[in-house]
Amino acid sequence: MSTIEFFLAGTLSAATIFLLAALGELVAEKSGVLNLGVEGMMAVSAAVGFVVTFESGSHLLGFAVAGAAGVLVSLVFAVISISFLANQVASGLAVGIFGLGLSALIGRDYESRTIAATEGIAIPFLSELPLLGPILFQQNIVVYLTFALALCIGLTFKYTRLGLAIRSTGENPHAAQALGFPVFLIRYCAVAFGGLLAGFAGAYASTIYTPLWADGMIAGRGWIAVALVVFGTWKTGRIAFGAILFGMVSLGELIAQSMGARIPSQLLSSLPYIVTIVVLAMISTNTARMRLHAPFSLGETFDGVGPR
Amino acid sequence: MQFKLDRRVHYSKRMLIATPVIAIALAVLVSSVLLVLLQKPVLLTFHSFFIAPFENFYSITEIFLKFGPLLLIAQALAVGFRAKVWNIGAEGQMIIGAITASAVPVYLVDSTSALLLPAMLILGALGGMGWAAIAAYLKTRFNANEILVTLMLSSIALQILYYLLLGPWKDPMGFNFPQTVMFQDEALFPALFEGVRLNTSIFIPIIFTIGIWLFMEKHFGGFKLVVGGLAPNAATYAGFSSKKAVWSSLLLAGFAAGIAGMSEIAGPIGQLQRSVTSGYGYSAIIVAYLGALNPIGIIFAAFFLAVLQIGGDVALVSADLPISAVHVFQGLLLIFYLATYTFVNYRLRIIRPLTHSNTKPTP
Amino acid sequence: MSAAYPNTDLTMPTDQSRALLSLRNITKQYPTVIANDRVNLDVMPSSIHAILGENGAGKSTLMKLAYGLVEPDAGEIYWQGKQVDLPNTAAARKLGIGMVFQHFSLFETLSVVENISLTMRGNRQTLSKQIREIGERYKLDVNPEASVHSLSVGERQRVEIIRCLMQDLKLLILDEPTSVLPPQHINSLFDALRKLRDNHVAILYISHKLEEIRELCDTATILRAGQVTGTVNPNEKTAKELATLMVGHDVPSIQGQHPKKTSETPFLKLSSLSVESHDPFGTSLSNINLDVHGGEIVGIAGVSGNGQQELSRIISGEVINKQLLPNAINIMDQPAGHLNPAARRLLGFSFVPEERLGRGAVPPMPLSKNALLTAFEKGMLNIGFLKNDTINKYTEKCIEEFDVRCAGPSATANSLSGGNLQKYIVGRELMLAPKLLFVAQPTWGVDIGAATAIRQRLLDLRESGVAILIVSEELEELFEITDRLHVINGGTLSPSLKTSELTPNDIGEYMIGNHQSSIERSGVNHAV
Fold first, then answer.
1. Which among A156, A177, A179 is the top mutation candidate for probing chain C, defined by the most C β-carbons within 10 Å of its own β-carbon?
2. In terms of CA atoms, which chain B residue is nearest residue C340?
3. Who among C105, C106, C357 is closest to A308 (CB)?
4. CA distances (Å), C457 to each of B335, C148, C401, in order?
5. Does any domain span residue A45?
6. Which residues of B touch A294 (CB under 8 A)?
7. For C394-427, how does the pLDDT look when each residue is reduced to its tens digit (9 = 90+)?
8. How close, in Å, is residue B50 to chain A by CA atoms?
9. pLDDT at position C257, please?
10. DSSP-based three-state secondary structure for A42
11. How confident is the model at residue C121 (pLDDT cuts 50, 70, 90)?
12. Contact across the interface for B223 and C386, Cβ inside 8 Å
């Protein structure tokens, strides 16, 4: 593989982590719940996924257990923010802090250990295409599944009753309740689904993308995923595009090194964060568009009693 | 049987005071289970956490050493949180404050001027405020979410720190360690007692706390911020500027965090190095909440978390407990605090299913 | 029989075994108030049954109980003679109960058919077809593909009714349905409701408007302070008799002398004011001209959602538009377009917003702190520090002078009833001694006693030469107290109209825009 091919193929792989986590956050936010614990959920799942895969040798089992761990952590968040009506921002931070600590605890005996890298799945014929083949069609199966999932989620929100129910819960929980929707249940499920995807994202990061465990390895990617949802103005297509963009940016360091560019590595490491800030400012400045697409009740606690 | 939450007409003062106590009890309970799972000695751990830190004078002074920056930052963050300005980037503001303050001794290695320390204090405060100002500007001008911006700025601040420590500011005689030269005595706060690290910088958070208490409880400025947090439309209606609230909350936090960063490099550390913040910026968020965002409550909360940090160091040795266990405990504290806090504004009602006598309307 | 209806001899005999819905001894208590106290109610099939009561009497709670939104603390609900539980709205809908809310339960970002598909099975083509069919049958026209946020409130109401009709409907509950309609559209709503009754749908009709109920309803149950005070045939009662049942005593009336002379120069002058809305769901204001002189009350009528919110915020200074020239808004002859609300207050302007909790007052804060919100310039600060004595005195004076029933200055705003809080806010603003007072929806959700007191205050204030501007959706109120009127429709203002020369139908024509073509927008003489 040439450098450029390597770079582009790696972009998709890196984008998968962002996209998985951002899709999960999207679903939670569409139901009106802002879960800022993504980083913590990913960290716990990354540790759990690594440990399970390391011990069992099975990536599948690692993903399954990591997904379950993500769901569990997200449920902690759901209990305090949905049932106990705590402020969603504070709850997300609490779960984030808890998750980061727990991940370090879980992964303590596995620091810097590695597991065997996985092979991508080469799609017959297509993978042999020049240039595009290695980039698009020799990826890990999780990459394909993630992009397929993005499509599914987009269609679900647009065309199905389930999607409409989630959207209406996020727009006006009082009205949704008046229509007979189980607002609390919908929000719990949406948050848990977010936890599941954050779990997969964590497992992908620690067992496939860089098959090793290191404390702090999520390195803000959970937060970038939250930012991606805003960047994509709550639309799956734009979120996927944003994920690819950030996948590219996060590889900047590797590329610059391989090309022998003399840029301080710290600047390149900062690049994803700088890009996030710039992009966030550019998108958010259009308040009309934000109002049109953001779930209207996002971040507001709902206690099941009429507004007062 | 079902449970339901009923909104109270008036918040419960008793619950407000009980909340942190209950949260601590629950966090202890859950971590005990966790410790058993990890096959660590439960009693010894909590002895290390809560009792051992008080066992000798030096250790007590160390508690106050941690107490200072936690108190300083938490007081400022709480003001912002009450105004619903979510600055969670105190960590970054602290790093930049430490960096700007360090510039003085780094570039004036040989100076013995008495102005060194004041200059560092001012530069540290300005550095923290400058870093926070970026988020304030982006929020007020572009509506960019301050949670994400302040967090990203913290990551960037850390990279700037690494760059300086590995490059231009690296101590040439430091065996290639990522740290600056040790600062001259004139650039350090004098110790309070012989042989301890606790120094005169402890007075800054105490004075700051009094100032914040006056501001929040007695002053119209604090009132305006609280109104903005509780009812933004009422603040607009009254003519209180939301932009000013963002600016003042962030600048205040930057000021406090910058000084906290400065007092670390001009105090216990004595140089600029990678672990300059010890995670104070994040722990202060927990302190602010555990203190119910109240200036008095925060004093207790800061002290409690300072004890916990020292206790964590003790447990590291005595119970072979990793430092991450302390972080888990802190996270649990905040989780249980938030859950328990519900009962300040709501009361729990148990609903038994209505029993009724079969069919037919009674005539 | 009479045991079932406490303290009444006005009870109409009803045949309970035939009743579609029966409530027995229903009690519902909230922390500060008993909303329903042993209420009994029988709704007959194919009838229009009114629930009459003033604001705060417990009408809405009773309807929410019947629709499964709220569960009673005690009492039984019977449906076609069988006892039922209504733990949620789905259970109610399954029985054939539908409800149209005062503040609609539609989702703005969804289309009409998407909204309906939330509660109805079936693909969108079929649903669209059904929507059109029902629309034709009951004359409730609406475009199924339209986005809800583009619809007028009247159209939204139709969508809600259609949504109820698409299920097998036996009982339709409507909560103050005419409050959002121009007079012309009320009749077509009534026609649709009568047609429904003739098609064997019973209707529970909540209202506080007596004439409406006398015109439309077969039976009326009257609630006062949570209790049933009578069940009557409204056609056989005069409006005055109904009012007495509703209020418990003779309805107070207000007295205002005819206005003396108005001031030479307007205290408020809006000149060619146009503001583009930044909110995609908002209304842009275009070319608004308005004068309010000292010693007169000017009203702004209109169906909600036609720019009242935007206009209020522009006049109050809560929204400051940078493109606007400062003299597009003149307060007391001073350009004020660039000033924030606090600065406008210093010019002698005062504003009572329509939302009391969360805008006019901070819900969890005591009344004393809420005084500080707008009255801080009245010597309450000493180099920025709060002078609690002055604050408490101001608050106490306001409570006493404006008859605010509360536990004192330390009572929190959210512990007061709507009427008392409104009296407090109006009082707080009047104590600022404004020369120009702007009140949005002065008596929204306020009981008759408080409403009368507030209206009387406004008339007294006019006598003393204050300029008063009122935005209201209640035509009766505007007729009662204003000297001149403008009608707002789609963000534009009608020319000035003399209230004494108008009928409700005239205003209705402006509300639905029928006058637009005949008016030359510019060059209209706005003088009285």
1. A179
2. B239
3. C357
4. 51, 39, 11
5. yes
6. none
7. 999 999 999 999 999 999 998 888 889 999 999 9
8. 20
9. 66
10. helix
11. confident
12. yes
Structure tokens given for B252: 């205040």
Residue of B nearest to C313 (CA): B237
B362 interaction partners in chain C (CB closer than 8 Å): 24, 76
Architecture of the domain spanning C266-348+434-518: 3-Layer(aba) Sandwich (3.40)
B24 to chain C nearest CA, in Å? 27
**What integer pLDDT is reported at residue C260 of this predicted model?**
67
Q: Report the residue from B167, B328, B335 with minimal CB separation from A76.
A: B335
Q: Is the pLDDT of residue C378 over 80?
A: yes
pLDDT at C16: 63
Nearest Cβ partner of A303 from B5, B167, B322?
A: B5
- Determine which of B56-65, B118-127, C91-100 has the lowest per-residue pLDDT on average: C91-100
Neighbors of chain C by Cβ distance (3+ pairs < 8 Å):
A, B
User: Tokens standing for B65?
Assistant: 């050493």
CATH of domain C2-96+168-247: 3.40.50.300
Strands C171-175, C97-100: parallel, antiparallel or unpaired by DSSP? parallel
In C48-76, which positions are buried (b, 16+ CB within 10 angstroms) versus exposed (e)?
bbbbbbbbbbbbbbbbbbbbbbbbbeebb
A43-A48-A53-A59 Cα dihedral, nearest 10 degrees: -70
* Domain enclosing residue A147, as ranges: 3-112+139-293
Q: What is the pLDDT of residues A242-263, one digit of tens each?
A: 999 999 988 877 777 777 767 7
Which residues on chain A are in Cβ contact (under 8 Å) with C363?
A: 308
Interface predicted TM-score (ipTM): 0.91
Classify A160 as helix, strand or coil: coil
Per the CB < 8 A criterion, the answer to whether A277 and A220 are in contact is no
Question: Would you state the structure tokens that stand for residue C337, as one six-digit string?
Answer: 């377009």
For residue C343, give how far its alpha carbon lies from the nearest alpha carbon of chain B (Å).
8
In chain A, residues with a C-beta closer than 8 Å to the C-beta of C281 are 291
Inform me whether the pLDDT recorded for A12 exceeds 80: yes
Q: Which of C83, C359, C414 sits opposite B356 (nearest CB)?
A: C83
pTM, whole model, 2 decimals?
Answer: 0.90
Residue with tokens 């020239």: C325
Handedness of CA A87, A88, A94, A98 (dihedral sign): positive
Domain edges within chain C? 2-96+168-247, 266-348+434-518
Q: What share of chain C is helix, strand, coil (3-state, %, to 5)?
A: 35, 25, 40
User: A102: domain CATH number?
Assistant: 1.10.3470
C372 close to C381: Cβ distance less than 8 angstroms: no
Q: Give the pLDDT of residue C54.
A: 84
